[in-house]
Predict the 3D structure of the following.
Amino acid sequence: RTQDSFGLWEGNSDAELLGEFIITKQQQCAIPFGGDPDPDALWRLDMFYTAVALAIEERSGVLTSPIIGMKPLGASGGWSFY
């Protein structure tokens, strides 16, 4: 619902919207380890944490803003989350 400015997803259940973010053990094992992550995966992470922030904001009334960043650590193949 984070990117739904026009209310097109209002008729969808939370389970339908979150279905894209839930993977099975087999799907998880198929994800390659290391290398650059898929831009879609980064977008999905951003949307997930934005949705969490919006849910917290709705329930608490406190203004929230997700802050997440990822950058490669060079030749080590690792990633830094900040």
Summary: The two ends are 24 Å apart (CA to CA). The mean pLDDT is 76. Residues 36 and 72 are 8 Å apart (CA to CA). Helices lie at 14-18, 25-30, 39-60.
